[in-house]
């Protein structure tokens, strides 16, 4: 495949950025999207040009760091992470536009890399269970109903990629927040801190500059882990209960 790439270039957080066009040739449809960018960077290195900075780590759909807006869609045209997106999803001769996440709470660091540490601070605000658990207990010693255990497990698959924020017209992190609240709130270990947790995490979310949820649903459509929208209902319910409890 031969492709034209329109890529956001930005020297650093202080500089203005702009789209630049590049051509890449002989791209295999079996390559991942990041391998295609690697090919372009090898080409730029050979030409003595600055390679394109983009974030990645595991390349296995686990870490959530490969955050790219591809043709206006978070992680591109498939329901997967950018690292698991393959070039067979594109056509020979196609022009592909590649941008960083666009959200006030995720400032651009360089080219396609954004700073997602706002998510870390939301987790630090309450996304944990702070009891001294000692060594791992026998699995059946803390009974959890199967439906609750399965729901907790399903939403624990959130990898913190931020696609939900990038897709949301309000730049809201409600799906991420709802996943974390639901994950801990469904399990017995999460109950003692449940009300304080939601109050602290929502306060940090708002402090970081994420927007409010208006039930548009773009977030769940862009989520590579298919986190369902009803975690936001859980978030709102827990927040209401925490306010009633005086948190
Ligand atoms: S809810 Fe989905 S889109 Fe949002 S951070 Fe988690 S995995 Fe990524
Ligand atoms: S690089 Fe880790 S999820 Fe894509």
UniProtKB/TrEMBL annotation:
Which processes are annotated in GO (biological process)? respiratory electron transport chain; tricarboxylic acid cycle
**EC number(s) stated in the UniProt entry for this protein:** 1.3.5.1
Instruction: Give the PROSITE patterns listed for this entry.
Output: 2FE2S_FER_1, 2FE2S_FER_2, 4FE4S_FER_1, 4FE4S_FER_2
What InterPro entries does UniProt report for this protein, alphabetically? 2Fe-2S_ferredoxin-like_sf (IPR036010), 2Fe-2S_ferredoxin-type (IPR001041), 2Fe2S_fd_BS (IPR006058), 4Fe4S_Fe-S-bd (IPR017896), 4Fe4S_Fe_S_CS (IPR017900), Beta-grasp_dom_sf (IPR012675), Helical_ferredxn (IPR009051), SDH/FRD_Iron-Sulfur (IPR050573)
- Keywords, sorted A to Z: 2Fe-2S, 3Fe-4S, 4Fe-4S, Iron, Iron-sulfur, Metal-binding, Oxidoreductase, Tricarboxylic acid cycle
| Manner of cofactor binding, per the entry note | Binds 1 [3Fe-4S] cluster. Binds 1 [4Fe-4S] cluster.
Per its UniProt record, the required cofactor names are:
[3Fe-4S] cluster; [4Fe-4S] cluster; [2Fe-2S] cluster
Residues forming the 2Fe-2S ferredoxin-type domain are: 1-102
Query: Could you state a single Gene Ontology molecular function term?
Result: 4 iron, 4 sulfur cluster binding
Q: Which reaction does it catalyse?
A: a quinone + succinate = fumarate + a quinol
Report the family membership.
Belongs to the succinate dehydrogenase/fumarate reductase iron-sulfur protein family.
Q: What is this protein called?
A: Succinate dehydrogenase iron-sulfur subunit
Organism listed in the record:
Nocardioides dokdonensis FR1436
């Amino acid at each position: 495949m031969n492709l034209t790439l329109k890529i956001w270039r930005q020297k650093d957080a202080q500089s203005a950025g702009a789209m630049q066009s590049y051509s890449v040739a002989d791209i295999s449809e079996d390559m991942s999207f990041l391998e295609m960018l690697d090919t372009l960077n090898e080409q730029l290195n050979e030409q003595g040009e600055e390679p394109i900075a983009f974030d990645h780590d595991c390349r296995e759909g686990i870490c959530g760091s490969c955050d790219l807006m591809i043709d206006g869609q978070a992680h591109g045209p498939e329901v997967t992470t950018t690292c698991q997106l393959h070039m067979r999803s594109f056509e020979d001769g196609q022009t592909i536009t590649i941008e960083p996440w666009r959200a006030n709470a995720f400032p651009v660091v360089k080219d396609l890399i954004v700073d997602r540490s706002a998510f870390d601070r939301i987790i630090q605000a309450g996304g944990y269970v702070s009891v001294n658990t000692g060594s791992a207990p026998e699995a059946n010693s803390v009974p959890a109903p199967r439906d609750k255990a399965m729901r907790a497990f399903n939403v624990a698959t959130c990898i913190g990629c931020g696609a939900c924020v990038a897709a949301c017209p309000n730049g809201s992190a409600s799906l991420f927040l709802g996943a974390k609240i639901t994950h801990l709130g469904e399990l017995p270990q999460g109950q003692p801190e449940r009300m304080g947790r939601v109050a602290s995490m929502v306060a940090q979310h708002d402090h970081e500059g994420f927007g409010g949820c208006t039930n548009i649903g773009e977030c769940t459509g862009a989520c590579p882990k298919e986190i369902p929208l009803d975690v936001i209902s859980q978030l709102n319910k827990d927040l209401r209960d925490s306010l009633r409890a005086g948190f």
